[in-house]
Amino acid sequence: MWHGIVNWLEGILDIESSTLQDAQFGITILGKLDFTCKNNVFEKNFTDIYVPVTDAGISDFDVSSVIEGNTFNGSPSLSGVYYSGQYPTPVDAKAYCGIWLNDLVGAFPDATASSTPNLFNDLHLGIMGIHSNLDGIYNCRFERIQPYQGYLNYQRIDGGAAIYSANNTSSTLNLDIGNQNTGSAYLENTFLNCQYGIYGVGKLNTIILNNNFVHTTWTLLNLPSIYLSNLRNRTIDIEHNTFDDAQYYHSQFGFPTTNSFFSTGIYISNGASATQHCDVSWNTFNNMRIGIYTNNCDGNISDPDFFSIHDNFINSTFPHSYIQVIGANHYGIWANNSHYVSIGANNIDRGPSLSGAASSFENMMLGLNMKNVQLSRICYNHVYNYGTAARFLSNCDNTEFQCNYMTTCVKGVRLDVAAFSQQGSSNLPSDNKWLGFPTPTSTSYNRVVGTPPSPADWYYRDDPNTPSLSNDFSPEPAATYVITPHAFTSGILCQQSTEQQKLFDLMHKIIGDSIIYNEYVDENKYMAEDFVFRILDADASIRSMYPEFESFYEEYKQFNIGEYNVIDSMITSEDFTEALELLDQIQDENTIEYNKTVTISLAIQELSADGLILNEDQIAELIGIANTTAWIGGEGVFNARHLLFAEVDDRENNLRESQPQNNRQNSSTPEFSLYPNPAQDYLTIFVSESNSSDSKAEIYDLTGRRIKSQSMLNNIIDIRDLQPGLYTIHFSSCGNRYTVARFEIVR
Known about the structure:
Layout: E1 3-7, E2 11-16, E3 19-21, E4 25-29, E5 32-38, E6 41-43, E7 47-51, E8 60-61, E9 66-68, E10 71-73, E11 97-102, E12 118-121, E13 125-130, E14 134-137, E15 140-143, E16 161-167, E17 173-178, E18 190-192, E19 196-202, E20 204-209, E21 212-214, E22 224-229, E23 235-239, E24 242-244, E25 264-275, E26 277-281, E27 284-286, E28 290-298, E29 307-310, E30 313-316, H1 320-326, E31 330-336, E32 342-344, E33 347-350, E34 365-371, E35 377-379, E36 382-384, E37 388-396, E38 400-402, E39 405-407, E40 411-420, E41 433-435, E42 448-451, E43 456-459, E44 483-486, H2 501-511, H3 521-538, H4 540-543, H5 547-556, H6 560-572, H7 576-585, H8 591-607, H9 616-626, H10 630-633, H11 635-643, E45 672-675, E46 682-687, E47 696-700, E48 706-711, E49 716-718, E50 725-733, E51 736-745
Parallel strand pairs: 1-4, 2-5, 3-6, 4-7, 5-8, 5-9, 6-10, 7-11, 10-12, 11-13, 12-15, 13-16, 14-17, 15-18, 16-19, 17-20, 18-21, 19-22, 20-23, 21-24, 22-25, 23-26, 24-27, 25-28, 26-29, 27-30, 28-31, 29-32, 30-33, 31-34, 32-35, 33-36, 34-37, 35-38, 36-39, 37-40, 39-41, 40-42, 43-44
Antiparallel strand pairs: 45-46, 46-49, 47-48, 47-50, 50-51
């Protein structure tokens, strides 16, 4: 048949214990309806229950409506009798969607307290809501919701989501999955072997409570159980869910290689920085590659708990030998370009011992991975048996790392080109603890390591940690270019700072240009000034505290930094046309601004439509930006990664250190690579274009002292006279100077 049951008018529709099959749409609903749908079997339909697009959103369900105990079966008929008489013809005899809702203005029909669950299996999409309230979906079981190739471009929706919701209308809608009453099995949803569990994009206030996600990526793609995109300025509440990906995926250890899993638990991302009221708490993650991932999510400068990730349990039973063979890095909590956030009281635990782990294991499992996370609190977290407990990268100014416990990790805190501010103060120790770390020697730095652009003051209680006197509170021994330690600081244990003077002191230093950066000077200064401007722009009371704050703000309002903040405000208020017009007037002055202009333009296009289709040139350019290290490329790097749905973990020397374009008019900046790295006696530099007669390379140590300069007519540099250690190299040509990369000499 062409259509199954069609409801044209308001009224009552009661369907129970029936089989509906071989229809384009099993049930079509066109008006307000008191709908009872119980214990039915839907099979061999293109879509089982369908609410079509309407002019005024008139389709609605009565509050007494119920959908329960139904089976939405998308698998082919076992008898081999395929669908007939339908258009579009189902691909491979597979159904497209179980329930497809358009412009639904009311709540989703409830299931009763005693009901058996609705079962959705072998579908391209389980429940899909376009501009619809999916308010109150519970007591459902989704199995094998996977994309089918023939449907990938249908309705511009890729598929594979058990629950899919998209809204770009002017109104905020609800996405409410699960139920607030804990401990009741009938109120939970279960997601098993789905490419995505929940996929939400657009203006959705989202509540996801008490659901079970089991193996919610059925391929080797690193896809999330919960994916939320561009929910800018909306509320997100994700609590008391369980994510279980316990099936290993490598045959060497006797585990299956088919139906293997490789997924992220929660993924929250915006195309450009946006304020997000968010609470992610009391969730349990078992053997996920990434527990929680955020990108371009800001909290509120005046409320540290506005965006909070707390009291989550992230557990791993992976042996280090398995991680090393797989070669896939694992992370507990990963935050990108997320400011004013609170990450606290999370338990990140890997059970197996580190005994026998390779030295490279510090890069393979990271408990806290913080990139460009500013003005945030990272407190009271426990990390056990990881490669690195906490890693900070790029500009992390005024982020407080306090009272965290790091137990038997290869490395404690790692600062990768991270602008990292003072920890603690003269009357407030930072009170982090390093437990079970090896007895130190003069060279065994493992508590705080890395290569920050300038060392950070670190205040802690009691004595320095030495081979003869152990102090779990001490970050020492540490290299002088990493931190400046201050022992014997007294204060109440684990007391959080409530005063802002430390922030204001940092802002004074940035405005007064008194911070000495040992490398990436221009990039670090630009990001620091942008950091100060954002604070002053967000809070007029801070601007009025000091004359230099007001002067700085008024001056930088006229610069590109100020213009970009105006554009951010326009995007927040959805003035997309005005934002694009202002963006087009900006003349990019450096790589950071170029990346920001390109990616914000595409992000606006994504926000103003139901989706964004990138052409080949756009994809190629975004790939170039996304694979630039964050400390070189700035905020646009994170925007590009969002647009490409790419999780890129910046590593020194393995991403591009320069961009093909410094601005719209100049596309001649050369690209570089170094070989070998680490090096022993000679270093070869490969340049993408011929060297001019004035091209030269300069080598600096980590104190910023130039120790070698050489003409680049010969691309080979003799480094036999340099001591082992870390260095940076800078290249100049035709009067332009570019930072190339860091390299290491080992012998």
